[in-house]
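Subject: Predicted fold for Short-chain dehydrogenase, 267 residues

User T.R. writes:
Posting the sequence so we have a shared reference for the thread.
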Amino acid sequence: MDMGLAGKIILITGAAKGIGQATALAFAREGARLGLLDIDSEGLEALKGEVKALGSEVVTATADLSTGGGVSEGIDNLLKAYDGQVDVLVNNVGSGAIRTFDQLSDEEWDLTFQLNFMSYVRSCRKVLPILRQREGGVIINNASDLARQPEPVPIDYSASKAAVLALTKGLARSEGPKIRVNAVAPGPVWTPFWTKPGGFAETMGQFHKMPPQEAVEHEMKLRQLPLARVGTPEEVANVIVFMASDRASFVTSAVWGVDGGSIRNIA
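User M.O. replies:
I've generated the structure tokens; pasting them so everyone works from the same file.
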């Protein structure tokens, strides 16, 4: 389906793997022009080749998005390639591990919020002055089902993603009607976020005292997902592309769950 995104300039943070990677490729198939930001330079280079193979223009920048300087310099490098212009910002970067409240130090809380929340604040601060000068600007923030339905672990991750939803709602009100601001809230999605060493699967295994794969399956049973499976990055990317397009022109301040039915409340 043609989403009318050909030629649009899309910036994506945390683009090298998982949902960010799938989102970049989905936009590339629509003919968008991409600016991709991540700390993983090798992953970015590989993705750059895939995007070019789809016929789309792409620039990349390597940056530590948990720091103010990293966000600012990284986005500046992308904007230079596009004459300081941008149409859509996708805040996607994030990380987490399964730790109880008692296990979390102040430093670990701060690291979680610096990457998962403050990077979004800083990215928005960089691009909003540009989007305010254009028509139809869009910001999409990647949150989580845990922002709306927290579990005992990972409590720091859940809190950071709840903050992302508050940011989304506040900006949607302050920046309308020219700029639409929405969030996607994925449930469990099988990405390197889960599978990497020290990621959700490994640390969930430690928490449940099970092998990682068994622990994930056990967690899904506990959450009683109606679709009874973990999602794919592409399933989230499809929703992000729709929300960036004019087909979602009356959608702002929304939180779109892509979660297999994990959220049970009506609101």
